[in-house]
Amino acid sequence: TWQEAVCSSLTEMSAPQIHKDRLAGWPEHYPWVQSPGLAYFRTRIPLAQRGVEHGLAVTFAYFTTRELQQRALGILKFKLDILWAMLDAIDKAYPE
Fold first, then answer.
1. pLDDT band at residue 69 under the 50/70/90 scheme
2. 82 Cβ contact partners less than 8 Å away, ≥ 6 residues apart
3. CA 28/CA 31 separation, integer angstroms
């Protein structure tokens, strides 16, 4: 369902702060990124926070029974398993 898709987006709950921290280092590490490009990515941070808040609201409104809450946890676990598998594949493909 679309509510399950929204629930899966909750893996991004810490993304706004992570992106903010990463962007702080861009001018030093990526000096070739022009100001308008950097400004665009900075405008995405509050939008990401709004997305997290919306995702939580939808999830709390939809997953109201214990059975549905267990389903929500399963959805998040599955998405995290996928993300870890992707990181493992990238790590294996590009060893130091």
1. very high
2. none
3. 6
